[in-house]
Specification:
By secondary structure, the chain is mainly α. It has one domain. A two-stranded antiparallel ribbon has the order 1-2. Helix 4 runs antiparallel to helix 5. It is globular and about 65 Å long. It starts with 13 loop residues before the first helix and ends in a 33-residue tail after the last helix. Bound molecules: heme C (HEC). Heme C (HEC) binds next to helix 4. This is Cytochrome c domain-containing protein.
Length: about 170
């Protein structure tokens, strides 16, 4: 079972919340290009969203997903996993770790009118709210996933509690 913590509970408390609201209201509305986006606010947050277990099955048709039937090489992004990691074709191009609202992978499945092109899956039923939540939370949590041998782990970006695992340089003594 997934946790029942709510997104709204994670909002900044009190004063900071008021300041953030004021800043959002003051921002020009034209800055938001996408429209007709599903509101996921108040839905449960899913901790530790897993690339293999949660995300890939949404994207990869071989796993029951609804994207790689079209996104199989000819139309970017390639969401098949042909021995090369699909995740590396998404992250930094269509996914900005930590920023779902700025990630095309999320915007394209969340909004009727994305920044460009049509809502995904193209000409198909929208992804369920749960599937959209999982993509959002996966990106928000740092878009972690499998790593090919030799890759620098992105695991350090976000830990469960948000704490840093940065290590101090080795000290010679
Ligand atoms: C029926 C075929 C089809 C399906 C299924 C499909 N797509 Fe697409 N997708 C396209 C086409 C064609 C484009 C380019 C035109 C556009 O952006 O609307 C595209 C564009 C995109 C882009 C932007 C690519 C770019 O370079 O700007 C993303 C991100 C994307 N799709 C994600 C998805 C996701 C996630 C799914 C599954 C939930 C999905 N698509 C399912 C056909 C499809």
């Amino acid at each position: 079972m997934r946790a029942t913590e709510h997104r709204l509970k994670t909002a900044h408390p009190g004063v900071r919340c008021a300041v953030v609201s004021w800043l959002l209201l003051a921002a020009p509305l034209s800055a938001w290009a996408a429209s007709g986006c599903d509101d996921l606010g108040g839905q449960p947050i899913h901790p530790n969203v897993d690339w293999e277990m949660d995300v890939k099955p949404i994207l990869n048709n071989m796993l029951g997903g609804r994207c790689s039937g079209c996104h199989n090489g000819a139309i970017p992004p390639d969401m098949t996993d042909n021995g090369v990691d699909a995740i590396f074709k998404l992250v930094n191009f269509y996914v900005t770790p930590g920023r779902p609202q700025e990630s095309q992978l999320f915007i394209k499945v969340n909004c009727d009118v994305p920044d460009s092109g049509g809502r995904m899956p193209l000409a198909g039923a929208n992804l369920s709210t749960l599937q959209q939540e999982l993509l959002y939370d996966w990106i928000a949590q740092g878009a972690r996933g499998e790593s090919p041998p030799g890759a620098i782990s992105r695991d350090f970006i976000f830990r469960d509690g948000g704490e840093s695992l940065r290590e101090s340089p080795a000290e010679s003594d």
